[in-house]
Design a protein that fits this description.
CATH class of the largest domain: Alpha Beta
Number of domains: 2
Largest sheet: 6 strands, parallel
Strand content: 5-15%
Low-confidence stretches: none
Number of helices: 13
Oligomer: single chain
Number of strands: 6
Radius of gyration: 20 Å
CATH topology of the largest domain: Rossmann fold
Distance between the termini: 20 Å
CATH superfamily of the largest domain: HAD superfamily/HAD-like
Mean pLDDT: 95
Helix content: 40-55%
């Protein structure tokens, strides 16, 4: 007896770091940490709060450890809370002494460096997304953030020329859920009005993307430099760049 053909793909979701943006998630820290802290140090000095760069860097590290504890529970918080954690690490009483205008300026300094020196977008992303959209496939983003919030990532996508291709964008800082929790995928698919069996996720991370989407019941295409799946991932297909995505999707669901 022949097995029924899998349902047609009605939605494709994509990861951000390591997929739409070829830079790895760790580059969000390594490329932008010093710039974040230099501007924040100047803002604090202008209010009469003088801290050394070393103290600020240590506070940044402490905020990262607190964030890691939250992220391990597959949960997330807005970047305004990142900044509050950082300031508290300098002095637990300091957040209460800073007015709302200064706190907003600190959040901007923390959140926006990637707009000034944007990460590199996959050069084939726009054409691949155009081809999928021409097939009538809904397109979305499902992504964890690191230190750069979803609001800023939208701006980076806009500059890269493909923000308008996406119908649904789900970022962990905005929904409070992090991959690999299946719920971040499922809430995105509910916005499309499609079932997991009608959707495919594309991403690089073997756990966050492949296992997370698989647990949500979606098809999965992994992006790796080698063109081979990385353990413990068991994707349905592997590509090396997004220019290969339309053909891979055709092979997966002809």
């Amino acid at each position: 007896m022949r097995r029924p053909a899998p349902p047609a793909v009605k939605a494709v979701t994509l990861d951000c770091w390591g997929t739409l943006l070829v830079d790895s998630p760790s580059s969000d820290d390594s490329r932008y940490r010093r710039q974040r802290l230099a501007v924040m140090q100047a803002l604090l000095a202008a209010t009469g709060v003088r801290v050394t760069f070393r103290d600020l860097d240590q506070a940044y590290g402490e905020s990262g450890r607190r964030l890691a504890q939250i992220w391990q529970r597959r949960r997330d918080v807005p970047v305004s809370q990142h900044v509050t954690m950082l300031v508290e690490a300098l002095d637990p009483a300091l957040p209460a002494r800073l007015d709302a205008t200064i706190m907003r300026a600190l959040v901007r300094a923390y959140a926006s460096p990637a707009l000034e020196v944007p990460p590199t977008a996959d050069e084939g992303a726009r054409a691949a997304l155009d081809e999928l959209a021409a097939r009538g496939i809904g397109l979305g983003v499902v992504s964890n953030i690191m230190r750069t919030p979803g609001e800023v990532l939208r701006g980076i996508f806009d500059r890269a020329g493909f923000l308008a291709r996406f119908e649904v964008l789900t970022f962990s800082d905005e929904c409070g859920i992090r991959k690999p929790d299946p719920e971040i995928f499922l809430l995105t698919l509910r916005k499309f009005g499609v079932s997991p069996e009608q959707a495919v996720h594309v991403g690089d991370d073997p756990v966050l993307d492949v296992e997370g989407a698989r647990d949500a019941g979606m098809g999965v295409i992994q992006v790796t430099a080698s063109g081979r799946a990385t353990a413990p991932a068991t994707p349905d297909a592997v590509i090396t760049r997004l220019s290969e995505l339309p053909a891979a999707l055709t092979r997966l669901r002809p």
